[in-house]
Amino acid sequence: MRRLIATSVAALLLAACGQGDGGNNAAAAGESETNLSAQAGAPSQDLAAVVGASPRLAGLVKAAGMEKVLSGKEPYTILAPTDAALDKLPAGSLDNLDQPEQKAKLTALLRAHILPGTILAADLARAVENGKGKATIATMAGEPLTITRDGEAFRITDAAGQSARTTGSEQPARNGVVHSIDTVLAPAS
pTM (2 decimals)? Predict the structure, then answer.
C-alpha cells in the first residue's frame, strides 16, 4: 500500500469513486443524518443509480466519467460523502471540478472513496474485531484506510489523518454497497 499524502483543498474534494480490480474490504453503518440513506437502493439498482440519489455526488461521478464503472459488473464499496460533508469543504473547493482539465484530480478524489469488492457493515465489524479494534483496508487507488468503531458507526481515517464517520444504513446495490460518510477523505497526491 502506498502512503496517503494530504493534497490541496481541491484534491480533498475529489475522493468518492474509482476504478480497479475486485477485492475484499469492509464498509460502514451508523447514525441517520444522510442524503443517500433516505433513498436506499434496492439490490436491483447498480451503484451509479444509488449514488444518483445525491445529485451533487452524481454530478462529480459524471464529470469524472465514472458512471460506466459504477454501472458495471465489478463489485465496489463506495464511501459516499453526504451533501453535509461536501458543504464542510472550504468555499470554492468544488468549483470547476467538473471541467475537463480537472478530471484527473476529480478521479483521484473519487477513487479515495471506493474500495474493491462488496464490504458490508457486518464485514467491517468482523474485520475491526479480528484486528483487535482496528482494520486496514485499501482504496481503489491502493491507499490505506484505517477503520475503527465509533459507537454504532465506524470511523474511517486516511493516511493523511483525515477522518470520517459512517452515517445511516448501508445501501445495497446489485454490484456493491454504498456507505454514507460525514467528511470528504483526502486522496493521495
Answer: 0.77
